[in-house]
Amino acid sequence: MWLEPFDFHPLTRVIYGPGRLDDLGTVARELGARRVLVVTDPGIVRAGHAPRAVESLRRAGIETVLFDGVEENPTTRHVRAGTEVARSAEVDLIVGVGGGSAMDCAKGINFILCCGGEMKDYQGIGKATGPLLPLIAVPTTAGTGSETQSFALIADEHTHRKMACGDKRAACRAAILDPEVTLSQPAKVTAATSIDAISHAVESFVTKRRNPLSRAFSLAAWRLLESSFERVLEKPDDLEARGAMQLGAAFAGAAIEHSMLGAAHSAANPLTARFGVVHGGAVGVMLPHVVRFNAQVVGDDYARLASESKGASEPTAEGLARRLEELLRASGLPTRLSEWGVPADAITELAPEAAEQWTANFNPRPITSADFVVLYREAGPAG
């Protein structure tokens, strides 16, 4: 078997286990922290996770300031507000507690606090102009895998177009995976974030940039996520299944770091920006159609995922596509774009935007605006 050359450099320490959130203060102190900014959202504060994080830091003798102004799909406005808090407090370490939005916002704050300018200055790869502060992630969902990536997705506050800002210096120094904190997730959040994580495992397995180690992470993520998702839906308090989902999401994030994503995410982003479709729902609707589109070039890879599935009807690309549709139905999320309120006449505007998305460049099969028109139509907008 021929192995392609690659350069794999893990950047994040991963600490996993129930109750490990209480170790946050110790981990921060090991990184030299004296004054920490905790970035989170009001829901995580109400759930008690942010206060628990703050208490762990204070027990370690670390001063703490809280910024809880993050919202879903953070924009440049949220980053700017958090940066003002961080700057006035003169922090030397940042902690992101929450879902992908909190972790991405924490990374965005780190860019602006340390390097100045605006988020658009960091769109792309390696745009930081100097060292960034140490960052610790405490994911409370099993979704984006931001804790094991060096990218922040920040939307422009006016256009709502997402900017992917990546730099190895933005990667989290540590990620604390405590499945206990995921127990408080509302069912809809569990469904949407889990579908997103599953899509990460599938897309990262076949991209142009994949390599043997990224594929190992993708495959491990798929096995954990696909086999545990329905268990989590049926028994939300199943800590073992919650842990498998959380670890699977982190593994998928590690795969993305080295392989990127593909056309399903390219198609999803305009749906979120234009129609407010929840990201996990948007990706979930589009992914089976992208699998069928890509099958002529990576059908064997998709068949491998299907063969590793607990529920696929057959070990083929079509079997994988059907299993993904089955998982989406199980989630309770809409299965057609028409159910999200996406009109048919929007396709001509959505398709060019999808084709311009960065992740489209990594799709294993070249894809054009015309191809996205077909994919959107297959996904079923209202006529």
Can you give a write-up of this model?
There is one protein chain. This protein is an alpha/beta fold and 383 residues long. The protein has two domains: 13-181, Rossmann fold; 187-378, Dehydroquinate synthase-like - alpha domain (Dehydroquinate synthase-like, alpha domain), CATH 1.20.1090.10. It is built from 13 helices and nine strands. The strands form two sheets. A six-stranded parallel beta sheet has the order 1-9-6-4-2-3, sandwiched between helices. The chain has a three-stranded mixed beta sheet with strand order 5-8-7. Strand 7 (151-155) and strand 8 (162-166) form a beta hairpin. Helix 7 packs antiparallel against helix 8 (239-259), helix 9 packs across helix 12 (347-356) and helix 10 packs across helix 11 (317-331). The protein is globular, with a radius of gyration of 20 Å. The model has no long low-confidence stretch (mean pLDDT 94).
Salient structural properties:
Dehydroquinate synthase-like, alpha domain, 383 residues, alpha/beta, six-stranded parallel sheet, 2 domains, Rossmann fold, 13 helices, globular, three-stranded mixed sheet
